[in-house]
Write a structure and sequence with these properties.
6 helices, alpha+beta, six-stranded mixed sheet
């Protein structure tokens, strides 16, 4: 079997940082596990890059660009733990995409207040678009995607307070869009139009710990795509090694408007508060970027 043909005998890829040769071992489930050194994985990625255009191996699958790369590597899982407890991931995306990827979930402090369901929804929520249809007639919604670059049309924004080491949610009723005039009148009756008090926030240290455990060192692969006669092809043209989470880059991303905080709650369920990132900005969250 050639190096880049699909190898269904391998169910997982593990990366050994300093060993010289790749070899097979067996998982607890009895499946063969493909072991790569860092150097051998780099070599395989270079050879995949040299293949040029390859057919999408998972047509109709939104993640086909990553799945096809995994197939070429002969793996089905993309977690790459190193024995010294440093962890690696294999990330793949289409070039020139600005879609958002969820980095992690984290509710704001003060946690005891349960800010989203207990304050945002009852005081600042608005009728859910499916209230009286899919949900109860009184179902409320609070869905906002906000950044530190510009206020939302409902007056919300993120403030990175470096002096006090907090990322805070701010509210300015003067900047509510005129399209939300009825909502503005409603919140004036419920809680007033002043700044949030208390303001929900995330401490720097908590954010750094959370993000640092979620944003692992990774091999980051970007692919061009094209269609010929209705068939999609990928070319894995840009590859990088990303090492060590860069917290200052994360904060700068909030300030510059490519890291977002996404609230998604309704009366019946809080879907969780998410930190999200424009996919093309993933390298900005790492201290070391090495092109392969």
């Amino acid at each position: 079997m050639k190096q880049h043909e699909i190898d269904n005998h391998y169910s997982q890829l593990r990366l050994i940082a300093e060993e010289k040769a790749s070899y097979k071992t067996t998982s607890k489930q009895g499946d063969n596990v493909k072991i790569f050194t860092k150097e051998s994985l780099i070599q395989e990625l270079k050879e995949i890059q040299a293949l040029g255009w390859v057919r999408n191996g998972r047509p109709g699958n939104a993640g086909g660009v990553g799945n096809t790369l995994e197939d070429l590597l002969g793996i089905t899982e993309n977690n790459l733990p190193i024995p010294n407890a440093t962890e690696w991931e294999l990330k793949c995306q289409r070039i020139n995409t600005s879609s958002l990827v969820t980095l992690f979930h984290m509710e704001p402090s003060p946690r005891a207040l349960k800010f989203v369901p207990q304050i945002f929804l009852p005081l600042y929520g608005w009728p859910h678009q499916e209230a009286g249809l899919r949900y109860d007639l009184l179902e409320m919604s609070f869905r906002q995607t906000i950044s530190g670059h510009i206020r939302s049309d409902r007056g919300f924004m993120i403030d990175v307070d470096r002096k006090n080491q907090k990322v805070l949610v701010t509210f300015d009723s003067r900047l509510i869009s005129t399209t939300h005039e009825d909502w503005k009148n409603q919140i004036q009756e419920k809680g007033g139009l002043n700044e949030l008090n208390p303001q929900p926030y995330w401490g720097f240290s908590d954010l750094n710990n959370k993000a640092g455990t979620k944003l692992l060192n990774c091999f980051f692969v970007q692919a061009e795509s094209k269609k010929e006669a209705g068939v999609e092809y990928f070319r894995y043209s840009k590859m990088m090694i990303l090492r060590e989470f860069n917290f200052d880059g994360f904060l700068s991303g909030i300030e510059q408007g490519y890291v977002y905080i996404d609230f998604d709650a309704r009366t019946g369920h809080n879907h969780g508060t998410k930190f999200r990132l424009r996919r093309d900005k993933i390298p900005s969250l790492y201290k070391e970027v090495i092109e392969i």
